Amino acid sequence: MRHPQRPSPTPDGTEPTPVRGNLPAELSTFVGREAELAELESLLGESRLVTVVGVAGVGKTRITARVAALMEKRYCDGVWIAELSDVHDPELLVHTLVDALGLTDHTSRSPRAVLAEHCAERRLMLVIDGFEHLAGPCAELVRELLRRAPGLRVLAAGRRPLRVEGEVTFPLLPMTDDDALELFVRRACAVRPDFRLPGGDRETALELCRRLDGIPLALELAAGRLRALTTEQVLHRLDDRFRLLTGGSPCALPRHQTLRTAIGWSHELCAPEQRLLWARLSVFAGQFDLEAVEYICSGPDLPADSVLDVLDELLAQSVVLREDSAVGSRYRLLDTVREYGAEWLRATGDAGRLRRRHRDWYLGLATWCELDWFSPRQAEAAARIDSELPNLRRAMECSMESPDEVHLAQYLAGTLWFYWAGCGRLAEGRHWLDHVLEEESPYDHSRLKALWVLGYVAVLQGDPVGAVSALQECREEGERSGDATAVAYAVHRTGCLSIVADDPARAEDLLREALGRYREIGELNSNVLMAQVELGMAVAFRGDLEAATAICDEVREICEDHGERWTLAYALYVLGYAALRSGPSGRARRMLAESLSISHAFDDLLGTVLSLELLALVTATEGDAAEAAVLQGAADRIWPSVGLPLFGSVHYGRPRAECEERARAQLGDARYDVERHSGRLLDVRAAVARALRAGADDGSAPAGGDGTAPGAAPGAGAAGTGSPDGAGTAGDTRRPAASRTSGRGGPELG
């Protein structure tokens, strides 16, 4: 950093050109951040104090220097940078700023008065970097300068806001994937001029950037390792990232030379209770909410009623990030920050207890969401589980580490049946169910539940062998142990298997038996209603369309009474099937369009593709063979993500065969193949929107502008995507949302 002094007169006695700042020259190319730079320029045009805050190594110093350079010509008295990270005595703060501005004064005036008088008469920008350890004195000084100097703009960069009146806080987030990759490649080329990213190496480098959270410091340190390692080797060694990512530029600030010291700098600035919460927050994976933090992380040394204030301080210091999502305000640690906290948690010897508390909370959360699935809160339950999936995975992993706790993992995997089957997660559900059942454990309720859920998922995936094995084991052991609930579910899902195996007569018998068993034990939920829907399907396949309609109309009424939407979609599917077979297609289209809207809102790919298949036939019967072929192509693209197309069933496959026959007859083979191929190019969202629009064109299926029909599950579209509604504006100072005490969180189980 240059510290220019006031220029001396030249030999001929004339005044030299005045120095107009001390911006350092850039030693490497600035990469990306176009949107952030533009927003910072705009904010500095409107506000006199803008503070860039962010986690260690995210690039605060570099972006403030860059935006200062871009705006330099706007300030006739220059842009001046003061680096405060090495200033530890508050008494030296003013001296450092005086020195940064190149001021000299031999009078008896105080440096503070000299600084204020100099700024008062000028139009200049002061950039203050690394102030967090002097936040209080620095805020007081900045407040005084801004009051006395109307032409002064202050751009600050630190881990926390100054908290001065009029301050606008700009949270600097990690780089996007594209910017991070460009930065990594540029820095890699500086180390190895022959560095290239052919083919698969690009994906490896992109994964490396993601694992490093898009933190510029981490990316630059990783690029430096390419002197000795390949990109793939660096990626594989990231589990010990603090030892790997060292050796930064000797010209860099000390706190930026290694990743550990960069984050350690933040850690040193935290109060003891903040360090404790930081360590305990490392048990979370992905996002988390305030209620979970208050339950899991509190204790005698950190009372629950103090957690909010401590979390607020960690947010202010950019240790914790706040994100607004479909399920409200959420928080998270970057992976690098989490690993640092995890090291401290292990050092306290408290990691095992915290992991069990974490597991217990998410067991309770899954239990409550399963109950909420059969209620008007169904969409919210789906969205909540979607946002908590990383933590639920960690909870299952924790339970699998001890033979005495395997039953808890089995319980959790089984309890999430509604998410696996109802929200497009069949493959992941199958993974966890297979995994938790690999371990030997007693045939208690938890294991039996996991077995019938495994059988259910296998049926939906078109795996009859896996389904029979799991369901038979569940029924036999349930009968032996007297678990009537497990037996009822095993019988039910065996009946479901019989439908897709083209034995509707046996399916009807088994489903009626299951429904009788459900009545005996007083069971009523989405599964029970689904058994009725499947009974209606079996009856319809046997040709009794009137009975099938009556059965599913009853389900429809119960669903409406309880606010249940997911099972309703399947009841509407059967009603659409019966209507299509009974006469004109108008009623069938209305039923199937609503079914499609609901299934798509829940990201239920099975319900979505089944409805698309029937809507293709409806479209063909209405005379639009080309559009029918397109919809069939769209269904072709979805099936591989679900399982065996149409379960390999003759009954389920008959409408598809009929649709293809009609369309080929009208279009000819060549054009039919072209139209069907074009449908395979549509993603799910586009296919659903097109199918609903086709109905809306003739007035038979009122569809919303977003591809959902009126009455579709509210908020459920966000449930499947997990996308935030928005991250707020740059000027917001992010603080925790107020806690809502709902009592939802499991008791400690161990």
TrEMBL record:
<protein>
    <submittedName>
        <fullName>AAA family ATPase</fullName>
    </submittedName>
</protein>
<dbReference type="InterPro" id="IPR011990">
    <property type="entry name" value="TPR-like_helical_dom_sf"/>
</dbReference>
<feature type="region of interest" description="Disordered">
    <location>
        <begin position="695"/>
        <end position="750"/>
    </location>
</feature>
<feature type="domain" description="Winged helix-turn-helix">
    <location>
        <begin position="275"/>
        <end position="345"/>
    </location>
</feature>
<dbReference type="InterPro" id="IPR041664">
    <property type="entry name" value="AAA_16"/>
</dbReference>
<dbReference type="Pfam" id="PF13191">
    <property type="entry name" value="AAA_16"/>
</dbReference>
<dbReference type="InterPro" id="IPR058852">
    <property type="entry name" value="HTH_77"/>
</dbReference>
<feature type="compositionally biased region" description="Gly residues">
    <location>
        <begin position="717"/>
        <end position="729"/>
    </location>
</feature>
<feature type="compositionally biased region" description="Pro residues">
    <location>
        <begin position="1"/>
        <end position="10"/>
    </location>
</feature>
<feature type="region of interest" description="Disordered">
    <location>
        <begin position="1"/>
        <end position="22"/>
    </location>
</feature>
<dbReference type="InterPro" id="IPR027417">
    <property type="entry name" value="P-loop_NTPase"/>
</dbReference>
<dbReference type="Pfam" id="PF25872">
    <property type="entry name" value="HTH_77"/>
</dbReference>
<feature type="domain" description="Orc1-like AAA ATPase">
    <location>
        <begin position="29"/>
        <end position="150"/>
    </location>
</feature>
